[in-house]
Amino acid sequence: MKYPTHSPARATRAGLLAVFLLLAAALRATTLPPGFAEARLPHALSFPATIAVAPDGRVFVGERIGRLRIFKNDQLLPTPFVTLNVESAGERGLVGVALDPNFASNQYVYVYYTATTPTIHNRISRFTAGGDVAVPGSEVVLMDLDDLVADQHNGGTLRFGSDGMLYVASGDNYYSPNAQSLQTVKGKILRIRPDGTIPSDNPFYLATTGINRAIWALGLRNPYTFDIQPGTGRMFVNDVGDIKWEEINEGMAGANFGWPETEGPTADPRFEAPLLAYGHGPGDTSGCAVTGGAFYNPANPQFPASYLGKYLFIDYCNGWIRMLDPGDNSVVPFATGIGVPNTVQVAIAPDGALYYLTVADAQAVGGMFKITYTGSLAPQIGTQPVGKTVTVGNAASFSVTAYGSPTLGFQWQSGGLNIPGATSATYTTPPTTLADNGSQYRCVVTNALGTTTSAVAILAVTTKNAPVPTITQPLPGASYASLDVVSFAGQATDAEEGPMPPSALVWDVVFHHNGHSHPFMDPVGGMADGTFTVPDTGEVSTDVYFHVTLTATDSQGMSASSSVDVHPRLSQINLLTVPGGLQATLEGAPVTTPASSASVINMQRLIGAVTPQTNNNVVYDFVGWSDGGAAQHLVATPAVPTTYIATYQIRTNGTLSASPNPVTVTDGTGLGATTLTWTSTGTSAVEVHVNSPGGPLFSQSAAGAWMATTGKWVGDGTTFYLQNVSGGLPLVAANTLATATVNIRAGTIAANPNPVAVSDGSGLGATQLTWNTTGTANVEVHVGSPSGPLFSRSTAGGWTATTGKWVSNGMVFYLQDVTGGQPLTAANTLASVQVGVVNRGGSLAAAPNPIVVTDGTGLGATTLTWNTTGTALVEVRVGSPTGPLFSRSLTGAWTATTGKWVSNGMVFYLQDISGGLPLTAANTLATVQVGVVARSGSIAASPNPVTVTDGTGLGVTTLTWTSVGTKAVEVRVGSPSGSLFSRSGPGGWTATTGKWVGNGTVFYLQDVSGGLPLTAANTLGSVTVTIR
Q: What mean pLDDT comes out for the span 132-159?
């Protein structure tokens, strides 16, 4: 499974169900048995994935994004315990946490997370707690697992076993063959020591190499969680299934759980069948993924006694917690209708409360829930009293455990009658007599809610004496060193039966340390002597010893025991560094030298050299240990105190930085200047080179701190190399102390068209802006000023965007670098462009117009004159906007004369073709229609002839003339250039002479249009007047 937001990875079969559950969450509330209450702790978590509860009640919660958080008194502390750099896709991330069994004293916290370097893989590390946060620099990497391919089936749960070993769940990484292969740790339960080393008694140790020797069980798909029961050491593994089954398996050394050969119930003898398998589907007995489980065995139970030792497990999708009885594998419901699905992990606190996590609710917020028992409870018997056999004259003790609330009262009875004063959970009889043989004892437990009575325990009193065991080896005062073979031997005699055979003897060896104990050797009977070998790994404390017990039991069931303690022989290791005062590690924990530590002779101690490390601003690199061991290696505690010395040398070190970086360039060159600052220690001479260790030399200096400024020649991506050239060292990568890559923050912005031509009189137009930036992450284009209205936003690179028809003349667009939230100021302006808006206009005229022709062709020539503004390129077309091209020009004023091919009514079109505008009427700036006319005229006189009767021979007449194809005409007397009689425009006109017209006077109608000369060629007509 995986949960990128709030659904399992098995979306093909559970995604719709998960969505349905989220929608229904607000309508559901968790249903719990009477007396239980649930509360969601009021703190948001980010994809919580793992949980562990400390002995002091603090709850450690790992968020998949890499933060390990602490709840203290159910309040989330604001500062994470530690924040790890993790890969958190899918089921990756911080997914496992466990506390050392000796956490109260050593403060060790173990985590399982997905590391990002050198490749993506899961890592097991240990941190040391300093209060509520990890001690800085305390991480000890215990094991790096195999590289990951997929982001699902990651496993990750960590638990300590009763043997003190750390157990680890690892998924098959979404490649099922991994689960059956001993060549990978994927799809397995792993077993390692707390220091990361691998025990040689692992079941596949001899069949594998490397970290694969940590394999303890195999054949698992996605063992999402598991738990180990306190006391019994039983392990239940929750293996998330494929398309049909969810499994709870019992973890055992060497077990093969069958994936991918089988899933769910199986009778295949090659594989271990699950303790419980449930199917997929809706409801309170089915689900989609078993993602959490814990045994209810807290230090201080608060749940009713019937819950003790049960296994509470949770399903990811269906919102329930069920309870498995490890005794008969029966299952009963505990909680149903959990309002927020996506449930993972279950943990039991020392005070008996139950915690569980939800990955994300409908708002993608994770949370932690707490279930407590708050109701009153009638008494319930937890542990029944058992019968006793004692020798006459000795006392017998009976005990009972019970649970209930309010406070319980106890009353022991003998033969059904109350025993005065016997009002505690334990009752000890007076010295017995033979008359007490067969007496029956029971305890009545009461509180305000009820009464319950224990089972009857029978007292057997005999005259027989218990055997007397005697340990002959080891003797009191015996001691041991690690790897010693300790011999034990003893015997027993019985007053009635005499010397007892070995079959009557049982040996038990218990290992004690730090005020508590662990079984070291299972009780073994039938022998009078034997041996055990003291391990050289494990607890390194000096507060340790072995408690050897011999118990003898006679034929009547009478038994007695004798014990002897075997204490260790101790020695000391000392850690020093050269130079002194540096740090080393002991069992992975940092110590400042000189440091000393005592432990059992021959006990393996893990010493380590911290490298590199910094002391007083000087960096030191590890050179070697005095015993020739690796930086981190095991040493057997010698019989005499021994000193181990780690030698260090000063590291040549350097720093190199550029400021400003990035460099802002606004002149379009893409080149800028910056100031380099460098420091070096452990050197005598350094140089700064450009673009490679052996590139052009920029500067050189001695050790210390220096700076120098470049010229304006630094381009984007220019890298400077700080080279150690002490003693003539070569210019190679091995001698590079530091590098600095300079980025150029540059940009260009342009508008097209610019200027923008408009013809509607609004003064507003549209243009397309094109911008390109380097050395930025985010840019914006603003209007009018660096902080003016936002026009567009983009990332680096080349972009275009077109404005609406709102750009006015002189409007400026500013390209602003807003990477990382930089302010909208002139300092962050990469480029700007000012856009002009001009009115697009044009005029077109022809002269002459009309054209006068006299040759009868009807065709003439004229001169066209045009003028345009707001254009880049224009054409004059004939007959239509797309007609034949007459002329092409730039903007401004132009003239061109046609040939003698202009016909009457011909129209010329002035077309704007700027930027490839089409030849359409929308782009016609002006037109002119040219007329062509034939030039003609006539003149007549009336009366003609003129009758004169006064003898003068002079008379008066009226002249009438008309003309077409002219602009101006004159009437001349006597010749084309004679005296002017009259002037007019074209058309029809009349004028009357004075009394001066003589016989034979000739009048000439002259075309003087456009200043035509008074010649016969321009005579349109004439009339001769006669006198009668």
A: 94
Q: What is the mean pLDDT of residues 381-404?
A: 85
Residues 6+ apart with CB under 8 A from 730: none
Write the DSSP assignment of 722-782 as a string of letters: EEE-GGG--SSGGGEEEEEEE-EEEEEEEEESSSEEE-SSS-EE--EEEEEEEEEEEEEEE
pLDDT of residue 689: 98
Q: Is the pLDDT of residue 1013 over 60?
A: yes
- What pLDDT does residue 25 have? 35
Instruction: State the Cα–Cα distance between residues 773 and 781, nearest whole angstrom.
Output: 12
In the block, residue with structure tokens 């005095």:
626
Domains of the chain: 11-371 (2.120.10.30), 378-462 (2.60.40.10), 468-568 (2.60.40), 570-638 (no CATH), 653-742 (2.60.40), 745-838 (2.60.40.1930), 840-933 (2.60.40.10), 935-1025 (2.60.40)
Q: Which of 83, 53, 78, 81 is nearest to 66 (CA)?
A: 83
| 769 vs 749: CA distance, rounded Å | 7
Q: What is the DSSP string of 309-340?
A: T-EEEEETTT--EEEE-TTT--EEEEEB--SS
Q: How confident is the model at residue 522 (pLDDT cuts 50, 70, 90)?
A: low
Give the number of other Cβ atoms within 10 Å of residue 211's Cβ. 17
Residue 696 has pLDDT above 70, yes or no: yes
Report d(CA 113, CA 156) in Å as an integer: 7
- Among 511, 529, 513, 535, CA closest to 521: 511
Residue of 749, 793, 785 whose CA lies nearest to 767: 749
And the tokens for 54? Answer: 């400390």
Question: What is the side-by-side strand order in the sheet with 969-973?
Answer: 979-984, 969-973, 1001-1007, 1019-1025
Query: Are residues 773 and 797 in contact, defined by beta-carbon separation less than 8 angstroms?
Result: yes
Do the Cβ atoms of 988 and 968 come closer than 8 Å? no
Count the residues in the chain. Answer: 1028
Helix (H) or strand (E) holding 874: strand 863-878
pLDDT tens for residues 558-571?
Answer: 889 999 999 999 99
| pLDDT tens-place string over residues 591-643 | 899 999 999 999 988 898 988 888 887 788 899 999 999 988 889 999 999 99
- The rounded percent of the chain whose pLDDT value lies above 90 is 71
By DSSP bridging, strand 932-934 and strand 851-853 are parallel
Reply yes or no: is the peptide bond before residue 612 cis, omega within 30 of 0. yes
Q: Which two tokens stand for residue 915?
A: 């930027």
At residue 588, what is the residue type?
Answer: G
Distance CA 407, CA 448 (A): 8
Q: Tell me if residue 565 falls in helix, strand or coil.
A: strand
pLDDT in tens, 669-678: 889 999 999 9
- pLDDT, residue 365, reads 77
- In the predicted model, is pLDDT for residue 240 greater than 70? yes
Task: Please give the full DSSP string across 968-1011, using - where no structure is assigned.
Answer: -EEEEESSTTSEEEEEE-SEEEEEE--TTEETTEEEEEEE-GGG
Pick from 298-312, 509-523, 917-931: least confident:
509-523
- CA dist 364 and 18 (Å) reads 13
Rounded to whole angstroms, the Cα distance separating 284 from 318 reads 7
**Statement: residue 20 has pLDDT above 50:** no
Cα–Cα distance list, 969 to 590, 852, 998, 1014, 1016 (Å): 122, 14, 24, 10, 13
Q: Does the predicted model carry a pTM greater than 0.85?
A: no
878 within 8 A of 842, measured Cβ to Cβ = no
